[in-house]
Design brief:
globular, xenobiotic transmembrane transporter activity, MATE_MdtK, disordered C terminus, transmembrane, 16 helices, mainly alpha, about 475 residues, ion transport
Length: about 475
């Protein structure tokens, strides 16, 4: 059923909604990851293991900072989807304006902090001396793209909250094309450009994100989208900013806990040398593909749950959970089998060093066997987050990472005197996360988050939802705008 904008997810076939809503997101993730893989091939095959190790040690820092933005935009998705489900147009406008205030402030602040503390954090991670300077240079340029990426994250979350997962795909595709074309030009100095090496990839990302962000904002205003950002104009914005922070802050902490856990685990891996770091980085690229369907199912389920809970359709949420587990579990099971059976072939796409391939293969055989467990966890967490109970998934992440993964990674790797101990710790932590998430979902306590929200007084009477985004307009800027 087509709504005034996007899609009404509160009626119709649930499996069809899951597939049609998550498919554009999955395609977008494949496109984005394909670009990332191409970048990794340029780096790993042409710039060497040192450059690949520099990217690997930088990634946890990047993801930690970006995780804060991801958490806040998850709050945006929850609030927008619940407003659409409840058909409260005034509340939708306040959600957009509060997101604008928060994203602009956080994007600027975190960029400045990241620029200053980057070298200190890399040293604390026990980054190899021959990698440190390259990693600092790469990271400082890459972080300049963070405000633009934050804005694009918010745009994607708002569109998805409307039930529209297609428009952001056009944005994403354009961003990927721009970055993919610029990568080799700036890395190798083609077409008269300076030969920048590894930092050329960071410059390519910065240019692509900035160009796409500007085009995306222009598109939303031209198409008169109800989520077009601008100078905040909704009345009584304070309560909505507080609500956004209340939902987004735990989600941001959750993302940071995941990222910081990765940072600490990467530090433990670094202690086993550059080859282990490169193997961990190459195997993590395979992880990106493996988790991609589950992550997108989880995002889709969060939006479906948000709209249906906003409309008061709790019975449909239980069906969303069942179908989500079926889809996510089946797909990750197939991926897991491929990864466990053919790890060497997959790793040689990125790196040829025999020792790195051997170490990476051991990671994929151990961790890859557990992919399906994590895939189902994304489904139950999606329901919980869709209700607004992001604090719960944050606590689950904290326990999983800091009480299980990090201590086990350190203990097992030292007891076994092998980096493989870290691989076992990661696999075991997946089972702990699934157990905790499922226990909370089946308890039904996640419904209280929605009941608490509904009990809050509304600042204004509900207004009808505003003008549609013209579907035909989505393709006009497809080659000019993108989201990464």
């Amino acid at each position: 059923m087509t709504a005034k904008f996007g899609t009404d997810l509160t009626t119709g076939s649930i499996p069809r909604h899951i597939v049609t809503f998550s498919l554009p997101m999955l395609i977008g993730s494949l496109v984005q990851t394909g670009s990332s893989f191409i970048n990794a091939i340029w780096v790993g095959q042409f710039l060497g293991t040192g450059a690949l190790a520099a990217v690997t040690v930088s990634f946890p820092i990047v993801f930690t900072l970006f995780g804060i933005g991801m958490g806040m935009t998850l709050a945006t998705n929850v609030l927008v989807s619940q407003s659409v489900g409840a058909k409260r147009g005034d509340e939708l406008r306040r959600a957009v304006d509060s997101t604008t205030v928060i994203v602009v402030g956080l994007g600027t602040l975190l960029t400045l902090l990241g620029e200053y503390f980057a070298p200190h954090i890399l040293r604390a991670m026990d980054t190899p001396a021959n990698v440190l300077d390259v990693a600092v240079g790469y990271l400082r340029i890459f972080l300049l793209s963070m405000p633009f990426t934050f804005g694009l994250m918010a745009m994607r979350s708002m569109y998805q909250g409307l039930g529209d997962s297609k428009t952001s795909l056009y944005f994403l595709f354009a961003a990927v094309v721009i970055a993919t074309v610029l990568d080799p030009i700036l890395i190798f100095g083609w077409l008269g450009m300076p030969r920048l090496g590894l930092i050329g990839t960071a410059w390519a990302t910065l240019f692509a994100q900035a160009a796409v962000f500007i085009a995306a904002v222009a598109y939303m205003h031209i198409s008169k989208s109800p989520i077009a950002p601008g100078w905040p104009r909704a009345p009584n914005l304070g309560p909505m900013i507080w609500r956004t922070l209340r939902i987004g802050a735990p989600a941001s902490v959750q993302q940071c806990m995941v990222s910081l856990g990765m940072l600490v685990v990467t530090g433990v891996v670094n202690g086993f040398g550059e080859l282990s770091t490169a193997a961990f980085g190459a195997a993590s690229r395979i992880d990106q593909i493996a988790f991609m369907p589950a992550i997108n199912f989880g995002m889709a389920i969060s939006t479906l749950a948000g709209q249906n809970l906003g409309a008061g359709h709790e019975g449909r949420v239980r069906q969303i959970f069942k179908w989500g587990c079926a889809f996510s579990g089946a797909i990750t099971l197939v991926i897991s089998a491929l990864v466990v059976l053919f790890p060497e072939a997959l790793l040689r796409i990125f790196i040829q060093e025999p020792t790195v391939v051997e170490l990476g293969s051991s990671y994929l055989r151990i961790v890859g066997a557990c992919y399906v467990v994590s895939g189902i966890t994304f489904v139950s967490n999606g329901i919980i987050n869709g209700s607004g109970a992001t604090l719960v998934t944050t606590l689950i992440s904290m326990v999983t990472l800091w009480a299980v993964r990090v201590p086990l990674a350190y203990t097992l790797s030292h007891q076994m005197n092998s980096v493989k101990g870290i691989w076992y710790a990661i696999g075991l932590s997946f089972f702990v996360s699934l157990s905790a998430s499922m226990a909370y979902y089946f308890s039904g306590k996640w419904k209280k988050a929605l009941n608490k929200k509904n009990a809050e007084p509304q600042a204004e009477p509900a207004a009808p939802l505003v003008a549609p985004v013209a579907p035909e307009a989505a393709g006009v800027l497809a080659k000019k705008a993108g989201e990464g």
